[in-house]
Amino acid sequence: MMENFDKTSLDYDRMARAIEYLDSHAGDQPSLDDLAGEMGLSPNRAQRVFRRWAGLTPKQFVSLVTMNQARPLLEEGESVLNVAYDVGLSGPGRLHDLCIRCEAMSPGEIKSGGAGLVISYGWCDTPFGRTLILYTSRGVTGLAFADPKSDKETLADMMSRWPKAEYRQDAQETEKLAEKIFSADGGDLSLLVGGTPFQIAVWRALLEIPAGATSTYQSIAEEIGKPKAIRAVGTAVGRNPISYLIPCHRVLRVSGALGGYHWGLTRKKAMLAYERANAEFGADTN
Questions:
Q1: Whose C-alpha in 137, 237, 242, 267 is 20 to 30 A from the C-alpha of 193?
Q2: For the chain, which residues make up each domain, given as ranges?
Q3: Which residue in the list 99, 102, 124, 248 is annotated as catalytic?
Q4: Is 248 a catalytic site residue?
Q5: CA of 285: how far to CAs of 28, 38, 91, 108, 213, in Å?
Q6: pLDDT confidence of residue 168
Q7: pLDDT under 50 in the chain at which residues?
C-alpha cells in the first residue's frame, strides 16, 4: 500500500523542482549535493525523498528523466500497441495492475452537455501533486492535476466539459478512488468518457500502452486505422478528460521529443520517469 497521499504530494513538489534542474543541467552530471541544494534538502534527506518517491537512487533517476533519454524510450516503446506485454512490463515491476473498462456516453448525453448527469468530485494529494477526481455512478469521468493555488481554475476547466451536469463534492469517496488509482493493489475500474467516435478510438488505444513504455502519435494513428490523421490524433490526445488513467503522458513525437501536456511538461516527465523506474528496476514505491 502506498504511503499516505500528503507525503507523496509533498515529494512531488520537490521532485518537480529536481526534474527541472536535471533537465537544464543534464550535461553537467550534477552531484547529489548539487541536487539536494536545488531541492532545499540535505543530501541524506534528498536521497530518502528519491527512494520514497521513485524507489531508486538519484543517479539512476537521472538516466531516466533527462531529455536525451527520450529516444531510447521511444525506440523501445514505439510499436508497443502491436505486441503483447513482455515479461518486464507485465510482471512485478508494473506500477499497478488496474483492469480498466471504458464506456462511452451516448450522443444524446453529449449533446445535452451532461444535463441529468450527477458528477461527484473531490481533491486529494497523490504522487503527482494536487489531484481532482470526478466520477459518476458509471465510472470516473475526469482526472486533473492542479499546480499551487490553481484549484479553482482546474475545477472550472473540468466542469466546463459538462456544463449542465449537477456537481456534488464528496471527499471521502474521492480518497477511496485515489487509493485504488495510485496504489499498487490494482482492481477493477470503470471510466465514462464523452467524445466523438474518433476521440474515443484514440483514448482506447492509449489504454493499451503499458506503464514504462511509450508510443507516438503516428503509431496510434496507424493503430486506429487512420494513418494520415496524425494531427487529429494529437488533438484527441490533448482533449483526454481522464489524465493518467488514460495515459496520454506516454505519447511522444516521432522525433522522441515529449510534445505537449495539458498539465505541464514537468509532470509528464515525472510520470514517465516514475513508471519507467518501476518497469526497469522493479522499484518498490510503497
A1: 267
A2: 5-68, 71-281
A3: 248
A4: yes
A5: 28, 23, 15, 43, 18
A6: 97
A7: 1-4, 67-68, 70-71, 73-75, 77-96, 283-286
**Which amino acid makes up residue 257?**
A
| pLDDT tens digits for range 108-163 | 889 999 999 999 999 998 889 899 999 999 999 999 999 888 999 999 999 999 99
Three-state SS sequence of the chain = CCCCHHHHHHHHHHHHHHHHHHHHCHHHCCCHHHHHHHHCCCHHHHHHHHHHHHCCCHHHHHHHHCHHHHHHHHHHHCCHHHCCCCHHHHCCCCCCCEEEEEEECCHHHHHCCCCCCEEEEEEEEECCEEEEEEEECCEEEEEEEECCCCHHHHHHHHHCCCCCCEEEECHHHHHHHHHHHHCCCCEEEEEEECCCHHHHHHHHHHCCCCCCCCEEHHHHHHHCCCCCCHHHHHHHHHCCCECCCCCHHHEECCCCCCCCCCCCHHHHHHHHHHHHHHHHHCCCCC
- Pull the grid cell for residue 29: 552530471
Rg (CA), the chain: 19
